[in-house]
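Appendix B, Record 12. Input sequence as logged:
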Amino acid sequence: VDETLDPSSLDVRELARQVQDRGFEHQVAASHCVSLGMQTPEVQAEVAREIAEASIAVFPLPQTNLFLQGRELSSAIPRGLTAIRALQDAGVLVAAGADNVQDIYNQVGRSDPLETAALLVMAGHQLADDAYGMVSNDARDGLGLGRVELIPGAPADLLVINAVSPREAIADAPMSRRVYHRGELVASADQWTQIHRAV
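Logged structural output:
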């Protein structure tokens, strides 16, 4: 909703009110919510409270919105992201994702959660661990899938990356990866570096 810089567009508020008035038995999530980022801090806080009361998860999609929003402007170009901090302060589940992959709306997207996390660090002012959480377990929660923890009995839906920390994984975005679904290896990719001696 509200994939616009126009502050008069606040459809996410109406969504929150509809969810509150009608009730929904399933998880409700809203993506983009760009115009919320264009509001005053007071309006951001007020709308964020309504979103929290309706238990709506919000998914910023930084790859697309950084590319699309503000293209017509030549100065003071806004980032085109939602009010992440105000939403978090209100207790809203803020996850993150991506849409538009290598199309007219996002020419270079690659559906890589680490790319999304890096953009959240750079443009959304998130710490690396928080950004990683937003594209991993917070995203699963926002979709009603439940969290994955490294404990016996937990769902073994995993992306295995050679990195010592979430920050390193985000910074290096290594392409050597293993994907497990229900404990079964379903995809793998390998990358290597070879240094040749100069003659």
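Residues 31 and 59 are 4 Å apart (CA to CA).
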